[in-house]
Structure formats: structure tokens, C-alpha cells
Automatic annotation (TrEMBL):
CDD domains: SDR_c (cd05233). Signal peptide: none annotated. Transmembrane segments: none annotated. The lineage of its organism: Bacteria, Pseudomonadati, Pseudomonadota, Alphaproteobacteria, Rhodobacterales. It holds the Pfam family adh_short. SUPFAM superfamilies: NAD(P)-binding Rossmann-fold domains (SSF51735). Belongs to the short-chain dehydrogenases/reductases (SDR) family. One of its GO terms (biological process) is monocarboxylic acid metabolic process. It comes from Pseudooceanicola atlanticus. It comes from the Bacteria. This is 3-hydroxyacyl-CoA dehydrogenase.
């Protein structure tokens, strides 16, 4: 697979899954714009070939401006990894409209604007890959995290629809649906999960591990390997799909 010199954007590329994907792409010679809200974090992790850029995905105008600036600097975006997201939980009947909007604005609106803006330059080229990081929670209900689950279901429906809109064109659109991955989101949420379930933090982590039939948290590199595989030109018929990486948790 020759991806050398192509330009990718990875939102939330400074940590966790996004950083692992950025590293995998850079290793293939891709120039990767990594985005997030914290420039210092992006600069600290950036390797040669990674280009930090501040972009808050809840701010439509910032996405429009940042993606245009990235295109001006490095050419058309041919790989778009819409990964930025937040995972916070509330039982749905105790979810305020403010909390609901916060989750949707980041996980669903942010994904939509990122993909829409990336397509502006991608569609001038003869190759494109759009990969959204949804979740196992995008494939089923999620106790205590209904807004999150709804946002991730939305991502899947949107990505399937992008695929339909571009059928016959050389661009593919797929969602990756991870189970529990060992990243800062899981570390941050261990406390919240333990409170919801009324167990200790260690027990909360054990519960997440036990849902995975391999009895482990998934590694970010496992998600990155699948994202890289989707970038392979030979994978052009994998389109409008969801790939669950849940260690058997579905
Ligand atoms: P991280 O917390 O490490 O990554 C989340 C990233 O999103 C951060 O880099 C963060 O950067 C960025 N981000 C959050 N809000 C915004 C915003 N408003 N604007 C721009 N960037 C933002 O956790 P993960 O790597 O695990 O999460 C990546 C994705 O994977 C998320 O969409 C998550 O829902 C999904 N996922 C994770 C699972 C897991 O178990 N870890 C399971 C299933 C799905 P910054 O704070 O600097 O802005």
C-alpha cells in the first residue's frame, strides 16, 4: 500500500486512539494534521510528519478555517479520521438538555462538520478514506450513557449515508466501533462507572475487562491497525460498514 505523501487529518490526534492512528499513518509516510483543543498536548506528542493544529470540533467556523488552513499547507485531505469525542454518562431520564447538547455537539455535530469540510478537498482527488470512530455503544443501548450511545448511533447512520451519497466514487466511509480501549477516556470514566455501579474503581476496571472475552482492555494500536487497513486501496469495497472491535463484546 503506497500512502506516502498523502495528507490525513486526525481529530483528537494528541491522545489515545487518535494518536495511535496518527502514528500508524506517519509510519506509512502520510503527512498527518493532528487536531485537538490543547496545542501544548499536540506539540508534545508530535513526531516528524505530524502537524499540530487547534480545532475545537464544537465550533463549526473553527473547523472550516482549520481544515482550509491544513489544505493550504499540505494539500487535499485524502484521509479523514473523525475521532474526537467525549464519553460521559447519565441515565437518560436524568439527562439535562444542556448535557445532551454537549455530547451531541462533540460526538455527532463535530464528526459531521469534520467530514463535510474534509470532503471539500478530498473530492478533487481520486482517492479518499473517511473513518469515524463510533463505539460498541453505537450498535446497542448503553446503560447510564444514553446520550453517548445516541451520538455514536448517529455517527454510524451519518457515515452510512455519506457512503450512499458517494457510491461509485473513489471514496469510502466506514465507522470503527471499539469496546473498552486503554486510553484517557477509560481512565477518566473509571471513577464515574464505579459510582454508577456502586463498586470500587478497581472493580469498575475489572468489569470493563471482563466484558472483553480476551479479558483485557483493547490497545489503541489495535484500532489504529484497522484504520490503516481501511486506507488500503485494495479495501475500496469496504464501504458504509461498521467494524466492531470489541473483543467479542457486542
Ligand atoms: P481520549 O480522551 O484520549 O481522546 C479524545 C480526544 O478527543 C482527545 O484527544 C481530545 O483532545 C479530543 N476532543 C474532545 N473534545 C474535543 C473537542 N470539543 N474538540 C476537539 N477535540 C476534542 O480517548 P479515546 O482515544 O479513547 O477516544 C477517542 C474516540 O474513541 C472517542 O470518540 C471515543 O468516544 C471513542 N471510543 C473510545 C473508547 C474507549 O474505550 N477508549 C470506546 C469506544 C469509542 P483535547 O481534549 O485536547 O481537545
Amino acid at each position: 500500500m503506497d500512502l506516502k505523501g498523502k495528507h490525513a487529518i486526525v481529530t483528537g490526534g494528541g491522545t489515545g486512539i487518535g494518536l495511535a492512528v496518527a502514528k500508524a499513518l506517519v509510519a506509512e509516510g502520510v503527512e498527518v494534521t493532528i487536531t485537538g483543543r490543547r496545542l501544548e498536548v499536540l506539540k508534545e506528542v508530535a513526531e516528524p510528519g505530524m502537524h499540530p493544529m487547534v480545532m475545537d470540533v464544537t465550533d463549526e467556523q473553527q473547523i472550516i478555517d482549520a481544515t482550509q488552513a491544513a489544505v493550504d499547507a499540505r494539500g487535499p485531505i485524502q484521509i479523514c479520521v473523525a475521532n474526537a469525542g467525549i464519553a460521559e454518562g447519565r441515565k437518560l431520564h436524568k439527562t439535562s438538555s444542556e448535557f445532551w447538547r454537549k455530547i451531541m455537539a462533540t460526538n455527532l455535530d463535530g464528526c459531521f462538520y469534520t467530514v463535510r469540510e474534509s470532503l471539500k478537498s478530498m473530492t478533487d482527488t481520486d482517492y479518499g478514506r473517511v473513518i469515524a470512530i463510533s463505539s460498541i455503544a453505537g450498535l446497542r443501548g448503553s446503560a447510564g450513557a444514553g446520550a453517548y450511545a445516541a451520538s455514536k448511533h448517529g455517527v454510524i447512520g451519518m457515515i452510512r449515508s455519506f457512503a450512499e451519497d458517494f457510491l461509485g466514487k473513489p471514496y469510502t466511509f466506514n465507522s470503527i466501533c471499539p469496546g473498552y480501549v486503554d486510553t484517557p477516556i477509560v481512565t477518566r470514566n473509571t471513577d464515574a462507572i464505579s459510582q454508577r455501579a456502586g463498586v470500587s474503581e478497581a472493580e469498575a476496571r475489572d468489569m470493563m475487562v471482563s466484558l472483553n472475552r480476551h479479558k483485557k482492555l483493547i490497545l489503541p494500536e489495535e484500532i489504529a491497525a484497522t484504520a490503516l487497513w481501511l486506507c488500503n486501496p485494495a479495501c475500496e469495497s469496504v464501504n458504509g460498514s461498521e467494524i466492531a472491535i470489541g473483543g467479542g463484546q457486542i
